[in-house]
Fold:
Amino acid sequence: MSDLIQLLPDSIANQIAAGEVVQRPASALKELLENAVDAGATRIQVVVKEAGKQLIQVIDNGKGMTPTDARMAFERHATSKIRSSEDLFSIRTFGFRGEALASIAAVAQVELKTRRTDDELGTLIQIEGSEVRNQEPVATGPGTSVSMKNLFYNVPARRNFLKSNPVEMRHIVEEFQRVALAYSEISFTLMQNDMEIFQLHGGKLSQRIVGLFGKNYQSQLVPCEELTPHVNVKGYIGKPESAKKTRGEQFFFVNNRFIKSSYLNHAVSNAFEGLIQPDQHPFYVLFLEIDPSHIDINVHPTKTEIKFDDERTVYAVVRAAVKQALGAHHVVPALDFSIDVNFKDKWDQDPNTKIAVDREYSYKTFNTPELKKANPSGWEKLFEGVQRTVEIDKSSNDEEETEILTFPSRANTESESKLLGSSESLENTGTTFQVENNYIVAQMSTGLLIVDQQAAHERILYERYLRQLKLAQGPSQQSLFPPVVELSPGDFELVSGLMPELHSLGFMISVFGNQAVVIQGVPADIQVRNEKELFEGLIEQFKNFKNELSLETRENLARSLARRSSLKRGQKLKDQEMETLVGQLFACQNPNYGLSGNKTFVKLDLSSIHSFFGK
Ligand code: ADP
Ligand code: MG
Structure:
């Protein structure tokens, strides 16, 4: 019997391997764009016909190839980018497997024109189904042009599997956007069926974002930067109000390579927690820089997935970077992006927009209480002066006990004026009043401030509780008649697990018998008539948020307690209470938004008021 095993002919082996690299027109475009970038191009033009099914052409002004290299480029594993297996760990260029051109040439009709600047003549190579049809000298501009025609012309089954033109075009635009974002200094154009879709001049990242996603983004970008010894994060996030219901404009790059990471996406969402609705997705374009030896980019053939050797640190840095940017965001509302989209340099921010990057810490110190202790922000100082008294508010309809907080001295003027713009400050002119027992209206030197009392109070309490949880030192008030709360087995389990956090918040709780707890004390700042109700409500709220939002435990507890204990719409407030509330709001780290991403206040500038009257 004769032997059965044969080596596959190269053309078939190439076709099979091509399946990995070229799944659709967009994946070929990605490879061609990356080659152009690797070649040092400063201008890259893309021409697409029939969503790439008929033609994808990438023209660059990069370094070009010699005739021999041009021929070699189509050989499998031919690459100029690595020489040994060690190099694999220090890859900075895009391509490195030397597979792309060979794969593309196996499943399409390819025409390559290339010339190095110093050569007189260039090279033309025509190749289809891995077979070189023609190679000759040609007069051509410096750089390289690769045309890929009739993708899968020789693999009808795969051609039939291509999606409709709109779908394939969407993939093409996606790939184009990713590369264009990563290289804002390179000029790009994208033509489809002779229509120009993008014309992007080389420039700053902010310009590139606006060029790709539209003018609306000009006023929505917040710079984001966090530098640590392990990883640097730089880029832009969208303001919370620009978040969208559909996921989409979210980009992570690691060492300038686009990656998908639901883990890191979670870090960003987590940082936006409380600022946007749970079903909204924030915009972001974030670049991580990390020593290539700490990552493995080769876990997936199309290379959009990545492994970090220290995922948790990367997560923490990303989250901190975004939180930081959001926190600083209320400090810079006066920053007018429309004046100049190109802040300065790609990363070089205007001193006014600089976000506490000069804060000194190493990446290990994220979220540690020490950090806060060492740097008490304005609002922490504010609380030092707050006295608490309780009295019955006779004027309120339901005769509910109302907390009176005496307004401390102007300890918070600084944070107010940061928020309101340097020239204005919150002037207490004695003209603070309530509308519908729902909104607080306060006069400022530059207009009117309208505050949603419940949203504002929730924000204040949330930040306070979060801080208490971090410092584990929430003050407690003793229950006069400690109630026993019977719990379901599930709730008992939950509460047992939350004991340390509940104690940090100021709950004094101990297990009582089989499935009950006794509440000996509750947080000092909460007006309680019924400790049991407060506690049960808190657990209920905690479970709700947990289902809805999958929050981190502490965030959830802080939110839940804030929601349960905040003052409500319809509650009448005294002058002093209104002032205190407004003062405390602007001492918050994130005063602009309530817990559901709703606004806490709006400003009505004098100029707008004038304009109502045509002045
Ligand atoms: P890789 O990019 O992984 O090295 P490719 O198959 O994409 O593999 O390309 C093979 C080689 O061809 C590259 O290493 C490079 O030397 C050369 N090459 C490809 N495209 C270009 C281009 N646009 N300009 C200059 N050289 C190129
Ligand atoms: Mg390549």
User: Anything to note?
Assistant: The chain is about 35% helix and 20% strand. Residues 31, 34-35, 95, 100 surround magnesium ion (ligand 2) (CB under 6 Å).
